[in-house]
Specification:
Elements (H helix, E strand, L loop, with lengths): L11 E6 L3 H13 L7 E7 L16 E3 L11 E4 L3 H13 L3 E4 L7 H14 L3 E4 L7 H9 L9 E4 L2 E2 L1 H8 L5 E10 L6 E9 L6 H12 L8 E6 L10 E9 L4 E9 H21 L4 E4 L14 H7 L3
Parallel strand pairs: 1-2, 1-4, 2-3, 4-5, 5-6, 6-14, 10-11
Antiparallel strand pairs: 7-12, 8-9, 9-10, 12-13
Length: 321
């Protein structure tokens, strides 16, 4: 690979792979973060399969858009892999084999450990760092769940999601059948804390689609691992507009007789995920600099590694110790 040497020695050079909702949100976060005096991340490229389609209004100025990493003038230290969970691991594997560290927002909780073990071997052998599942959940919420028992003895940490749009579930639904014109999966709190209700709204290309086909689509969705363990419902509508939203969130609670904790998170789903990935780039860079290669989830990383600042004193002062 013929990369030109970067003259940004004090910067962390990152590229974004895939330019859907999360990829575009990462660019927006980057533009916001540039205003911070402690900013030290440089966006050196966007990698996407259809790079020849010039969506100029969505691209930041002076950022290369390419189909392959080796076309970039500056080699990225880290690639933020923003593709959906069902296909992102192929991207992660590809970049790790090139010795480039990766961040992803893989959100299938049950499969994380399987991928962590595989990617750990791959990252170690290529002297790279892979941070797996670095979104707001899993990711940020995972850290909170890990720490809740630090101040609340006994009890159980419970996460209840919603109301809001699940990007991962929505992506899965859209891929179920070619005649799905548009769809959204809305997550709502279930009948008790820790349970979710999912309402899937589907807009069809053919409004007169047979009931048998609709039943098959419904069955395929309800049988999918993303939906089979929740109270899930599929509704066919003329338009998803009145049910759609960019918002999502949840509440984490832990309580016992002596103490209790409640943390609420809500906001633009894409922006929260993108922000988590963006700040995880600092952690990945620092870990690689120390020779701490491998694949890690956010709970395996020292929180101070995510914080802006050129040295430990600046970072500790920033979080007020």
């Amino acid at each position: 690979m013929n990369f030109k040497e970067s003259n940004l020695a004090k910067k962390i050079n990152v590229a974004v792979n895939s330019f859907g909702n999360i990829g575009q949100a990462i660019v927006r976060v980057h533009q916001l973060e540039k205003e911070d005096a402690y900013h030290n991340i440089e966006l050196v490229g966007i990698i996407r399969r259809n790079a020849k389609i010039r969506d100029y209004e969505r691209y930041p100025e002076n950022v290369e858009v390419v189909e392959n990493a080796d076309e970039l003038s500056i080699k990225p230290d880290i690639v933020l892999c923003a593709a959906p969970s069902h296909c992102v691991m192929n991207d992660v594997e590809k970049f790790l084999k090139l010795g480039i560290s990766t961040i992803d927002c893989f959100d299938n909780h049950k499969e994380i450990n399987k991928y962590r073990e595989f990617l750990n071997t791959l990252a170690e052998s290529n002297k790279a760092v892979s941070i797996l599942g670095a979104g707001w959940d899993p990711g940020f919420d995972s850290i909170i769940r890990a720490l809740a028992g630090l101040v609340v003895p006994g009890g159980e940490t419970i996460t209840t999601f919603g109301p809001g749009r699940s990007m991962g579930h929505t992506t899965v639904v859209k891929s179920i059948h070619p005649d799905i014109k548009n769809a959204v999966s809305i997550t709502l709190p279930g009948k008790q804390p820790g349970l979710q209700r999912r309402e899937v709204y589907i807009e069809l290309n053919d409004a007169l689609m047979s009931k048998d086909t609709q039943d098959k689509i419904t069955g395929d969705i309800l049988g999918h691992p993303y939906f089979s363990n929740d109270d899930s419902h599929v509704l066919f509508v003329k338009s998803i507009a009145e049910n759609d939203t960019r918002k999502h969130g949840g509440i984490i609670t832990r309580a016992c007789e002596q103490a209790g904790m409640e943390l609420k998170l809500h906001g633009d789903n894409s922006i929260m995920t993108a922000t988590a990935m963006y700040n995880a780039a600092r952690a990945a860079f620092r870990m690689k600099e120390r020779g701490n290669y491998g694949c890690f989830t956010t709970v395996q990383i020292a929180p101070i590694d995510f914080v802006k600042g050129q040295n430990i004193v600046e970072r500790l002062a920033r979080i007020k110790y």
